[in-house]
Amino acid sequence: MHQISAEAGYANGALKTYFAGKADLLEATYTHVFERTNERVERAAAGLSGLGALVAFCREVMPLDEERLDEARVVMAFWQEAAHDPARAAHNNRYMHRWRAGHVPYWDALAPPASRPPRRPRRRATAREPLPAPGRPGRARVRGRPAAQDLLPLPPAQPVGGLR
User: Fold this and answer.
1) Measuring CA to CA, how many Å separate 65 from each of 29, 41, 42, 59, 83?
2) How many helices (H) and strands (E) in the chain?
3) Of 21, 38, 92, 125, which has the fewest beta carbons less than 10 angstroms from its beta carbon?
4) What distance in Å separates the CA atoms of residue 161 and residue 86, rounded to the nearest whole number?
5) Which tens digits make up the pLDDT trace of 49-96?
6) How far apart (Å, rounded) are the C-alpha atoms in residues 42 and 53?
7) Whole-number pLDDT of residue 152
């Protein structure tokens, strides 16, 4: 906290009035970054739907300039903290659920209503259940196309700490 206070131009104890420790400051910064990103996404995706809105979202989230690169560093540092702290992981999960819920209309716009399968109630996986294997049921598909995970040369994601 001493180094952060010094770089911000504050006395050593000034931040302690607002934040009990570095983790609290990091959580507040993560929340600020998330809200700023959402504001940029709303402006960029205004009037768009489907793929256009998803592309606008990705462009605003990806670290394509110095500002967003700094924001990505904050998010990565927070995720590191959340991997070891259930309360911080829950905070992250609340924000990630907001993003997922916000994307539903974009994904729904990609497929005409007649071709959309009826929505099934989602069952939450438990920590002891394995993730679906690549190409197995449970993978997202859009209009018969392969899941994005099948197109990327990356290994399947592994669960990290309390993050989902």
Assistant:
1) 18, 15, 18, 10, 27
2) 6, 0
3) 21
4) 8
5) 889 999 999 999 999 999 999 999 999 999 999 999 999 999 999 999
6) 9
7) 44
Residues in the chain: 164
90-99 pLDDT, tens digit per residue, is: 999 999 998 8
Pairwise CA distance, residues 70 & 132, whole Å: 33
Residue, of 119 and 28, whose pLDDT is higher: 28
Q: What residues have CB less than 8 Å from 45, skipping those under 6 apart?
A: 52, 53, 56, 57, 106
Using a pLDDT cut of 90, give the percent of the chain over it.
40
Exposure string over 113-146, b if 16+ CB within 10 A, otherwise e:
eeeeeeeeeeeeeeeeeeeeeeeeeeeeeeeeee
Q: Are 156 and 149 in contact (CB under 8 A)?
A: yes
| pLDDT value, residue 136 | 47
Burial 64-96 (b: 16+ CB within 10 A, else e): eeeebeebbebbeebbebbeebeebbebbeebe
